[in-house]
Amino acid sequence: MAEWNVGAKNGTWKGGRSVASNGYVLILVGTNHHLADVRGYAYEHRLVAEEKIGRRLRDDEQVHHVDGNKENNAPENLDVLTCAEHRFEHRTADRNLRMPGEPNPLLQCDCGCGEVFPKFDANGRPRRFVSGHNPMPAPSRDTLLRALQDGPRAIRDLATALETTPAAARCLASRLSKTGTIVRIGRGTYAAGGSHARNVN
Q1: Which residues share a beta bridge with 147?
Q2: Which of 63, 70, 90, 153 has the CB geometry, 3.0–4.6 Å to 157, for a possible disulfide?
């Protein structure tokens, strides 16, 4: 490269500072810097954050812009967070998860046991029950056998008859097929087995 075309002598020189396509500011630091890419540029927010905390960033840490402006790399606008904390800060309301700054009120368990717990769990998911207190109605064996009286049925049809999910119907059908109460005659299709084929009231 000609000497007249290097650094400040280049007509496109911007003082070693530019904005990348992702909106973050890049600073020319040289290829020997630990944060530099192959061209010798590093993200300004990472450089400022390391200076602020007095050490190198760990692999599990991200730099968060408090005001959301990627070009505002003032030390007071940057927080060093774990990756999990950073994801939390960037949640959107459509995820049905606890939002940054949203309170975590205490609720009573919906089962009526009287136990109190925080609405959101450690991952920010909303809860209505204390763990293990969510009473899920078990699909009825007799209802399933009645549904099979007129012939073989697919899991989706059994789920409709049981007024439950296909997964719950599949679980019950699997248990009953192991005892010979019903038989699996094809992929996802069951029929009454043995004495149950015609003797269900």
Answers
A1: none
A2: 153
The full set of domains in the chain, from first to last, is 15-90 (no CATH), 141-197 (1.10.10.10)
Angle between helices 155-162 and 166-178 in degrees, nearest 10:
110
| Tokens found for residue 106 | 């205490």
pTM, 2 dp: 0.44
Task: Read off φ and ψ for residue 197, nearest 5 degrees.
Answer: -55, -35
Instruction: Report DSSP letters for 101-122, one per residue.
Output: T----EEE-TTSS--EEESB-T
Q: pLDDT by residue (tens digit) across 18-73?
A: 889 999 999 999 999 999 999 999 999 999 999 999 999 998 898 999 888 999 99
Rounded to whole angstroms, the Cα distance separating 113 from 127 reads 15
Tell me the pLDDT tens digit for each residue of 150-169.
899 999 999 888 888 888 88
Per-residue pLDDT reduced to its tens digit, 174-188: 888 888 889 999 888
Place of tokens 């200076």: 51
Q: 43 - beta bridge partners?
A: 26
C-alpha 10/C-alpha 191 separation (Å) is 81
Q: Which two tokens stand for residue 121?
A: 């769990």
197 CA to centre of own chain = 45
